[in-house]
Write a structure and sequence with these properties.
Length: about 140
C-alpha cells in the first residue's frame, strides 16, 4: 500500500509538470496523500507494537489477555487512525491504599475537625509493596 502511494505522488508531480494540474491543486492532493500515508504508518506501528507486546510473554509474564482485537480510534495530526489492540490484566492482585498521618486535630465547629499538618501516601500496591509503604510512613 505504501509503495503505491509513493507512485501516485510521483504520477501527480509529473502530471502537474506537464500542465495537467495547477500547483495549488497539487498541494491539496499532496496534503491528502501524505496524510493518508501518515495514517497508514501510524496504524502499522500501533499494530506492530501490540503484536510485539502479545508475542513477548517474558515481558508480560504476570499479565493475561482479557480482550483481543478491540478496535480503537485515536486522533493524530494526519487524521483519525483506527487500529486493533489487545487488553491485559495483571494476575497479581494489587490494592489501592491511602494512608495519612497528622499531628492531631483541631475542632472547627461542634463535632467537625480539621487535621493538623496532614501528609498523605497513596497508590496501588502489590502485596509485597504494602510492607514497604508502611515503612515509608
Amino acid at each position: 500500500m505504501l509503495h503505491l502511494l509513493f507512485l501516485l505522488v510521483i504520477e501527480r508531480i509529473i502530471a502537474m509538470l506537464k500542465g495537467e494540474y495547477t500547483y495549488p491543486e497539487l498541494e491539496t492532493e499532496l496534503k491528502e496523500m501524505l496524510n493518508e500515508l501518515g495514517r497508514e504508518i501510524c496504524t502499522l506501528v500501533l499494530n506492530e507494537l501490540d503484536k510485539k507486546t502479545y508475542e513477548n510473554k517474558k515481558e508480560r509474564k504476570d499479565w493475561i489477555v482479557v480482550q483481543k482485537d478491540c478496535e480503537r480510534t485515536i486522533v493524530t495530526p494526519f487524521g483519525d487512525v483506527t487500529y486493533k489492540r489487545w487488553y491485559y490484566k495483571n494476575k497479581k492482585p494489587a490494592e489501592a491504599k491511602c494512608i495519612y498521618i497528622h499531628e492531631g486535630k483541631q475542632e472547627l465547629t461542634k463535632g467537625r475537625y480539621k487535621l493538623k499538618n496532614p501528609v498523605y501516601f497513596s497508590g496501588i500496591y502489590e502485596k509485597e509493596e504494602i510492607k514497604d509503604l508502611w515503612e515509608r510512613v
